Structure formats: C-alpha cells, structure tokens
Amino acid sequence: MSDLLFNAIRNNDEDTVSKLLQSNPELAGSRDERGSTPLLLSTYFGLKEITDVILKYPQDLNAKDASGNTALMGVCFKGFEEIARKLIEAGADVNARNFNGGTALIFAVNFGRTNLVRLLLDKGADPEIKDNSGNTALDHARMHSVKDAIDLLDNKK
Questions:
Q1: Which CATH class is domain 1-59?
Q2: Rounded to two decimals, what is the model's pTM?
Q3: Is 1's pLDDT higher than 80?
C-alpha cells in the first residue's frame, strides 16, 4: 500500500494520496526504498497541495532521509518558501541537524535563499549552531559571499 502512496506522490496525484491516507493514516509515517517519508518526498518535489494533505496526518515532521536531511532542510535547499512556512507552522524543528551537522539555516545560506534565511531567523533558527566542520551559518555566508545573508546574520549577533 505504501508503494501506491509514493507513486501517487511522484505522479502528483492528490486525489489518490488523500484516499490512501484517509483509509490508512499510518501511511503518513511510512518510508520508501530510499528512506523517504511521504512528507519528505512531497516537499522535495515542491508539491504544495499534496504536502497540505500529508500534514493533516500524525507523523514525525523531523524525519530524516538517508542523508540525514529533514523536509525543512530540503525545501531550504530547493527554495520553496511557502512549504517551509507550512512545515514550521506545523512544528518542524528549525534547528534540526543532518549527519554533517548542517541545519536548514546553513542550507538556505549556502544556496543563496535569503528569504528563507530571514524566515528561519524570525522563527528561532540558531545562527550559532556549527556544522561538523565548525562553521556557523555566518561562516558559510562569508565563504559563499552571500552579502544579504551576511547582513542578516551579522544583525543577529
């Protein structure tokens, strides 16, 4: 049954996703062959409506994929601000760390997503968290010359 759900998400089939989750709400916490949850997959593809459907069901909002990334980290990498807001409002941890110690804030900085840097800071992201290499989001902003992020992070000190 979970294969049907993951295929429906990949095919952007909101109706099937809704029906499958209504009939079996536990599917919201299932994993595919790559370790992704329905939420991780829908957010990675930027599927706002399907993400809304999935968020109605109990699940771990901070579940990690095979690389240790959460859905919030993925949308910060991809630049999906609206979905990031939804995840944060639903209770996603803005300070969760992946296997390399990276956070959603570090992802947003590294990919020049200044709007997401601002959002994460406004929602309590800790700019002092260091990744496994000892670098903060500000360090990353300086390494990648992301001036707007440098300004935002300098103001948080």
A1: mainly alpha
A2: 0.93
A3: no
Query: Which ranges in the chain are annotated with CATH 1.25.40.20?
Result: 1-59, 81-157
Residue 60: how many other CB atoms lie within 10 Å: 13
Using one digit for the tens of pLDDT, what is the confidence trace for 15-72? 999 999 999 999 999 999 888 999 999 999 999 999 999 999 999 999 999 889 999 9
- Chain length of the chain: 157
Structure tokens at 129: 């968290």
* Alpha-carbon gap, residue 107 to 72, rounded angstroms: 10
For residue 72, give the nearest of 51, 49, 100 by alpha carbon. 51
Only one residue has tokens 């992946």, namely 98
Class at the top of the CATH hierarchy for domain 81-157: mainly alpha
